[in-house]
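Private note to self, pasted from the team thread so I don't lose it. Backbone tokens:
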């Protein structure tokens, strides 16, 4: 249940008082400014509590659209966890096995929404019913080594999926995110190779790419 309250907002207003003094020698006016604080307060209301508001004063919602290449990845994922839009934060719930996403219009653009969704879906591949990835199953405290490894896997997997879907506008942000988690891991190259391998395995699962082994026939 949602509750909406009116609120009290106050501003510390600074007034500039002018004291003009004529300077005869230079024939100009100098202005001395003095500052004085005055407390003012106003009652404000949520727009949902108001009626008959002119349309020009209403906040405009960003128009959203589905990106076919991204939607096909999400809909084609085997054992895709439920995707909910209940809370205004993006996360994967390991215990209940679902992804929560903020509403699409809350993102700067549609590409940003799908990139975030890809990140959470990569996390979900580590569930025991899918790839049973140790870095997810043994998630430690925020910023710890195992936590950082899992975040690195999720973001590298996101980059793979972005490339597959043909959305490149988020690459720079993903690169910065990866660099941040590498810093937590002190730039240890072992983690890069391990994360890259795990991220590839996660994206193959999402894209339903089966690992095939070439059959070697004995020479006659």
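Design output:
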């Amino acid at each position: 249940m949602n509750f909406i309250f009116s609120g009290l907002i106050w501003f510390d207003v600074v007034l500039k008082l002018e004291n003009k003094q004529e300077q005869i020698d230079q024939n100009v006016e100098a202005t001395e400014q003095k500052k004085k604080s005055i407390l003012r307060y106003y009652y404000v209301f949520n727009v949902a509590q108001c009626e008959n508001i002119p349309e020009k004063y209403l906040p405009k919602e960003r128009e959203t659209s589905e990106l076919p290449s991204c939607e096909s990845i999400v809909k084609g994922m085997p054992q895709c966890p439920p995707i909910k839009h209940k809370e205004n934060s993006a996360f994967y719930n390991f215990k209940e096995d679902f992804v929560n996403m903020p509403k699409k219009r809350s993102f700067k653009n549609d590409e940003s929404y799908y990139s975030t969704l890809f990140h959470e879906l990569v996390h979900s591949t580590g569930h025991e019913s899918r790839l049973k990835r140790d870095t997810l199953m043994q998630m430690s405290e925020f910023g710890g080594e195992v936590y950082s490894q899992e975040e690195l896997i999720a973001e590298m997997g996101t980059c793979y999926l972005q490339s597959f879907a043909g959305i490149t506008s988020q690459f720079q942000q993903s690169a910065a995110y990866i660099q941040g988690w590498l810093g937590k891991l002190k730039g240890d190259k072992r983690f890069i190779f391990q994360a890259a391998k795990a991220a590839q395995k996660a994206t193959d699962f999402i894209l339903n790419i089966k690992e095939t082994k070439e059959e070697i026939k004995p020479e006659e």
